[in-house]
Amino acid sequence: MTVLKKQIKKDTKAIIQDEKTEDLLSRSLQYLKAGYPVHFTGPSGAGKTSLALALAKRRKKPIMLIHGNHELNNKDLIGDFTGYTSKKVVDNYIRSVYKRDESVTEIWKDGRLLEAVKNGYTLVYDEFTRSQPSTNNIFLSILEEGILPLYGTKMTEPFVGVHPDFAVIFTSNPEEYAGVYQTQDALLDRLITIFVDHKDSDREAQVVSEKMDIDKSEAKAITSLVAALRKECEGDNGPSLRASLMIVKLTQEEGIPIDGSHSSFQRLCIDILGHQVSRCIDTDEPLKAAEKLILEACKNMKATSGDKGESDNEQ
Ligand SMILES: Nc1ncnc2c1ncn2[C@@H]1O[C@H](COP(=O)(O)OP(=O)(O)OP(=O)(O)O)[C@@H](O)[C@H]1O
């Protein structure tokens, strides 16, 4: 007898939706339906891009993704002439007559914004405050007048009308982050800005457990450890859910037990979290202080996850 095993393939990029995420997504979808752009802002790793993509997917329209960058310019957004095609016709049918007809045409390629605007796509503009505010000015005309001006393009028509299905979802990090430009008030004024903060360790544990296929209590032990270190940080630039996912992935790949008293687990946590924690605490020797905090958090974790397996703590 042949036994067919059903293989369940996990979509590791899919968003894990708890009640709060579901609520946020359905509210945001309503705002988009009403014609307002949605802007998710918050600390790094809080899940803004994942949310933006999940929201875009719900609109069931093609998605165009643009990443903010200080070098992004109007040619990237609107389009540019990318080269030439030339056509030459030589007519020498009658030997004494030589006719030559030559024409050269420039080739135009639509930029990503123009393509999205013309065809009614959902545009996800990730980290838009990393682009220069002057580049982002173009969104003022799109959002206010419903047109995309084609300035600086040698095109004969001055603008393109925005397709009624077009919608934009922006994401950004707060202004105090490095490499981020201050956004013009006029643009912010036209967006519905929702602050997306780190989830609490229970919600993070749910994401880690479902995404990485591990026991909820083990996931909770790791997200609590990361959340405890995040609390030690000044501002909101501490380690995020991303760090918890990294720790779990490496414990799985390297066969390291999820055990705060195990030296290889402690080493892994120091490698993954050390630098980030050292950057956000204010002491004379930040690296040493960060290491100490991580080891303490690992020890406290023992109580959370239960001490399974042998300890080979060298401390
Ligand atoms: N609800 C969720 N379900 C599944 N994975 C999630 C969820 N929230 C966050 N993640 C995961 O956490 C990590 C960080 O998320 P994401 O990249 O969306 O954060 P971000 O806020 O956009 O970060 P940054 O500001 O650094 O770009 C990613 O690996 C993402 O897959």
TrEMBL record:
Any one GO molecular function term: ATP binding
Residues passing through the membrane, by range: none
Superkingdom per UniProt: Bacteria
Family matches, as Pfam families: AAA_5
NCBIfam families, A to Z: gas_vesic_GvpN
Entries under PANTHER family matching the protein: MOXR FAMILY PROTEIN, REGULATORY PROTEIN-RELATED
Name the UniProt record assigns to this protein: Gas vesicle protein GvpN
